[in-house]
């Protein structure tokens, strides 16, 4: 009696080999798989609860033949995967797309599912200043909807506004999404201040050329140097200060002289002037200060005139003389 055991075993092995080969051939021939087959496989995976696999198949079908119905399939799978941002985008697009538009029943189902998805996302109207700045969400470039709305899922998100021509160049703001909110967000960066022009007045040496950049001399020849240009101003200021000081001491001189005359008039009538020596001493000090400061003003004015860079103008001079009611000063430039 002949044993038939090996034959069934060989048949099973042959069947497995044929099945694997057919599966490999189909995988290698995905580009030529009919759209109806892809969609049928996607629906089967969706009905089996394999939503990630179903979405991948719907996306393949949409890439090859985009339509409102493939978008609806992507939105349905995304909703079941709790990717409510992608679900909102796909379902919204499916209701607008006119390529193989949805039937009335499919449209009602997509609208109901979209309304539920809206309760699980945050919608934000983002205003950027400057408008050319770039918006990032959690470190990735933001993806705005066609109407300019930013959709964010549950949780905490970091918004970053970046602008290379602003100061500072980046601004961050945290956003907590609890679902269903619709808010306005304004992110602003100030433009960077203009860069000051380079200082060309400072002396320097050209690198590798031996050329020297010096301070330009003012009109009037070579008499004025970098030191002389500040020295003549210093002497001019000294002349003015000395002249003012001389005027003040002259007023003190006049006051002491008047006080001395009053004291001496009292001595003539009462026979006593107790503060005469003090007043005389103060008067002499005032006279000395007036003459000394006046001389200093004149000398400083002459020196300033000699150092003045514009040779065509007369040298400045200051002269102050005490009068009956004050001090008279004359300035000449």
Structure notes:
A hairpin with a 6-residue loop joins strand 8 (204-205) and strand 9 (212-213). The protein has helices at 6-28, 35-47, 51-64, 68-80, 84-96, 104-118, 226-270, 276-307, and strands at 122-129, 134-137, 140-141, 149-152, 155-162, 170-177, 182-188, 204-205, 212-213, 317-322, 327-332. The chain is α+β, with helices and mostly antiparallel strands and 333 residues long. It has three domains: 33-118, Serine Threonine Protein Phosphatase 5, Tetratricopeptide repeat (Alpha Horseshoe); 122-188, Immunoglobulin-like; 226-332. Strands 3-2-5-6 form a four-stranded antiparallel sheet, with no helix packed on it. A three-stranded mixed sheet has the order 4-1-7, with no helix packed on it. 22% of the residues are buried.
Q: Quick one: how many beta strands?
A: 11
Treating each run of at least 4 consecutive H or I residues as one helix, how many helices?
8
Averaged pLDDT: 76
Number of domains as seen in the coordinates: 3
Please give the share of residues in helix: 40-55%
- Spans with pLDDT under 50 lasting ≥5 residues? 1-29, 203-228
Sequence of strands across the biggest β-sheet: 3-2-5-6
Largest sheet: 4 strands, antiparallel
Indicate the proportion of strand residues. 15-25%
Shape: rod-shaped
Q: Rg from C-alpha positions?
A: 49 Å
């Amino acid at each position: 009696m002949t044993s038939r055991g090996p034959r069934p075993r060989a048949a099973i092995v042959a069947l497995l080999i044929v099945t694997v080969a057919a599966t490999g051939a189909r995988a290698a021939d995905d580009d030529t798989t009919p759209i109806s087959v892809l969609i049928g496989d996607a629906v089967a995976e969706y009905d089996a609860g394999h939503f990630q696999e179903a979405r991948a198949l719907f996306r393949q079908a949409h890439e090859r033949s985009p339509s409102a119905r493939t978008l609806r399939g992507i939105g349905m799978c995304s909703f079941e995967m709790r990717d409510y941002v992608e679900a909102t985008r796909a379902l919204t697009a499916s209701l607008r797309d006119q390529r193989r538009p949805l039937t009335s029943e499919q449209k009602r189902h997509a609208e109901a599912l979209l309304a539920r998805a809206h309760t699980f996302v945050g919608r934000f109207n983002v205003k950027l200043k400057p408008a050319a700045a770039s918006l990032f969400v959690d470190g990735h470039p933001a993806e705005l909807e066609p109407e300019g709305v930013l959709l964010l899922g549950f949780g905490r998100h970091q918004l970053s506004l970046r602008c290379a021509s602003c100061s500072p160049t980046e601004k961050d703001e945290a956003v907590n999404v609890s679902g269903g909110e619709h808010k306005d967000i304004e992110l602003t960066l100030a433009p960077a201040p203009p860069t000051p022009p380079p200082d060309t007045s400072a002396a320097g040496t050209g690198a590798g050329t031996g050329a020297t950049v010096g301070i330009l001399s003012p009109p009037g020849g070579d008499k004025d140097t970098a030191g002389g240009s500040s020295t003549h101003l210093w002497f001019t200021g000294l002349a003015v200060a000395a002249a003012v000081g001389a005027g003040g001491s002259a007023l003190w001189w006049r006051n002491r002289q008047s006080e001395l005359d009053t004291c001496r008039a009292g001595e003539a009538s009462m026979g006593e002037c107790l503060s005469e020596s003090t007043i005389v001493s103060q008067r002499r000090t005032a006279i000395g200060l007036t003459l000394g400061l006046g001389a200093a003003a004149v000398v400083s004015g002459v020196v300033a005139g000699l150092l003045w860079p514009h040779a065509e103008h007369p040298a400045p001079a200051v002269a102050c003389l005490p009068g009956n009611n004050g001090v008279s000063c004359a300035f000449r430039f």
